[in-house]
Amino acid sequence: MYSEKVMDHFTNPRNVGEIEDANGIGQVGNAKCGDIMKMYLKIEDNIIVDAKFKTFGCGAAVATSSMATELVKGKTVEEAMKITNKAVAEALDGLPPAKMHCSNLAEEAIAAALEDYRRNIGEASNETVDCTGCCNSCGHSHGREEDFDE
Length: 150
Ligand code: FES
Known about the structure:
The protein is of the alpha+beta class. The protein has helices at about 5-10, 60-70, 75-80, 85-90, 100-120; strands at about 25-30, 35-45, 45-55. A three-stranded antiparallel β-sheet has the order 1-2-3. FE2/S2 (inorganic) cluster (FES) binds next to helix 2 and helix 5.
């Protein structure tokens, strides 16, 4: 049911924990199950130099969190903003259709952490974007409503 990569990242998740001096932190919740992901980013000169996570959730959520932190490291803020839940799932050689919604947390956590970073450096407005159309109850502000698979 799960790919070897999913099992690998579930049983041996990378980058678990907190970054004490993180300058971008995002926490999101999955409307379908109540699972929670918190993403910590350390960004220097517009490059993500470190990423860690804490996830209270299912195996797919842990695996996608782990892969998401691997994917964002070394990327620019702009590159990381383009990472979708599909890209995270594909990097894990796919997820079962019933578990695709778990990967939404990864995309949303990255977006929330980047938004927090941009707010910290004074680039983002404090305007809250209506999330209706994606998870519908994540409670954070973001402007990415497309590509949220069930
Ligand atoms: Fe909640 Fe997977 S069942 S994120």
